[in-house]
Amino acid sequence: MPFRMLIAVAMLCAAQPNGLAEKKPNIVMFLADDLGWTGLECFGSDLYETPHLDTLAKSGMMFTDAYAACTVCSPTRASIMTGMYPARLRCTDFIAGQNRPHARLRIPDWTKRLQTEYVTIAEALREAGYRTAHVGKWHLEGKGDNAKGTDAVSQGFDVSIEKPAGTRGYFLKKGTTSKAGTNYVTDWLTDEACDFIDDSRDDPFFLYFAYHVPHTPIQGRADLVEYFQQKVLSEATHNNPTYAAMVASLDQSVGRVLQNLKANDLTDNTVIVFTSDNGGLTQRYGKHDGFTENLPLRRGKGSAYEGGVRVPTIIRWPGVTKPGATCRTPIMTIDYYPTFLEVARAAGDADHNRSVDGLSLSSLLRDPAIELDRSLYWHYPHYHAGGDGPYSAIRSGDYRLIEFHEDKSLRLFDLAGDIGEQDDLAEQEPDKARALHSKLQHWRTSVAAQMPTRNQAYDAARESEVGRRR
After folding, report:
1. pTM score
2. Cis omega (within 30 of 0) on the bond before 296?
3. Which of 95, 241, 255, 467 is the most exposed place for a label (fewest CB within 10 A)?
């Protein structure tokens, strides 16, 4: 897809609010890990408490139809870094993926890293004069001989801070504490993020804070777990106090970073993005885990359905977004790359830009009623414990079509009246199904998507044993 972005620097400078054209806006991106669509109170949770993110939503714009580019994490992260669909990058599963040698289909030889030839958003922004920091989970680095040049610093970040040595799960090694006095890794990483802001306040900066929470293992701070144990209602959709504690620690971290921006007098010149890398994990191998729920969406992480890819998203651009606004236009994580370039008034790399699939969201941030003339696509030629087998999908308008590759079956849903994807319309509306399937096939060809193939070693009995062992 051609790279479409308004890049007229003079016009953008004139459009900057409150006389801030002289200094480029800072950009802070918060990326939650496995947080489902209803994982915030402002997005409908009946247990989780997220006062800081709720306040952010009231001061910015909520996106009801925001999507991750993949149903698992690494491909979505790659889409953020490059603005490209995971299928184009051939980075289509979490690194390093799952081995299912006896499954019906053989997965393609995909790329288990973010390849160095792509220009990341960190590299593009650093070239435009930004200080850049990655804090938290990277999950795009290759292994062994494929590792060289794929770490966060090699991919454009001046600073990369991950879990400190000795961390076990979410708890720091004995004797290590955060400035808040806790031994919880999210709090320690928040200290580092705030220190970066303090050190960078005189220059434009890009902070990519990629949380580990609320990914497994499900471990919360003891004080927060105890608090939520007193609030659980048996009839509630969300009823896991430990998971609620993890979400609360995420919210507290966001609150601390926002307060730090305020203390440095940076709030009015900082663009904030909050989103998640995929939906909440609800089940593995057909059994519900009891961690969380994405209702009314169907299923969760790893699956082909909305619960795997629709995510809570909030964006605040002071002077541009209207406080309390809601946008129902579908967007995806591929869109942040061109959006950040426009925010930063940066040209980026011309060769890379020609392959960017995303669109700048600046028009939506000014007017949430605008419709973007495009379809959105997913391609997951893999098996996952929480999934339904290899699939591809398209959303066009309110319709969503899924193609399952094992049996070549199509499922068609009208999300306008069936957000839970319960009523398959493929037989009732065959013309619509055929039209969307044709678009999906054309898109796969355009990005050279890798397809699964028939597995000569398929063994139904041994494959079913995979689920029983777990």
Report:
1. 0.94
2. yes
3. 467
Closest CA to 26 of 205, 274, 202, 267: 205
Please state the domain count of the chain.
1
Measured between alpha carbons, how far is 74 from 94 in angstroms, rounded to an integer? 5
**Residue 409 within any structural domain of the chain:** no
- Helix (H/G/I), strand (E/B), else coil: 264: coil
pLDDT grade for 467, boundaries at 50, 70 and 90: low
Expressed as residue numbers, the domain containing 115 is: 9-374
Helix axis angle for 241-263 and 185-200, nearest 10°, is 10
Q: Output the DSSP codes for 270-319.
A: EEEEEEESSPPP-EETTEE-SS---TTS---TTSSSHHHHB--EEEE-TT
Domain-located, residue 426: no
What single-letter DSSP state applies at residue 386? T
Residue that has been written with the tokens 């041994």 in this structure: 462
CA 105/CA 389 separation, integer angstroms: 9
User: Computed over its alpha carbons, how large is the radius of gyration of the chain?
Assistant: 21
Q: Model confidence at 231, in pLDDT bands (50, 70, 90)?
A: very high
d(CA 170, CA 184): 6
Q: How far apart are CA 161 and CA 148, in angstroms?
A: 18
Report, as an integer, the average pLDDT of 264-284.
97
Q: How many angstroms separate the Cα of 424 from the Cα of each of 307, 414, 417? A: 16, 8, 12
pLDDT of residue 470: 39
CATH number at 167 reads: 3.40.720.10
Give domain status of residue 432, yes or no.
Answer: no
Q: Phi first, then psi: give them for residue 61, nearest 5 degrees.
A: -125, 130
Q: Report d(CA 161, CA 155) in Å as an integer.
A: 14
Residues contacting 225, CB < 8 A, separation 6+: 241, 242, 245
Q: Is residue 119 part of a domain?
A: yes
Return the beta strands (E) in 26-121 as ranges. Answer: 26-32, 61-63, 66-67, 105-106
- DSSP assignment string, 417-428: T-TT--S--TTT
Tokens of 194: 């705030």
Contact by Cβ (8 Å): 433, 401: yes
Q: 10 Å Cβ neighbour count for 334?
A: 27
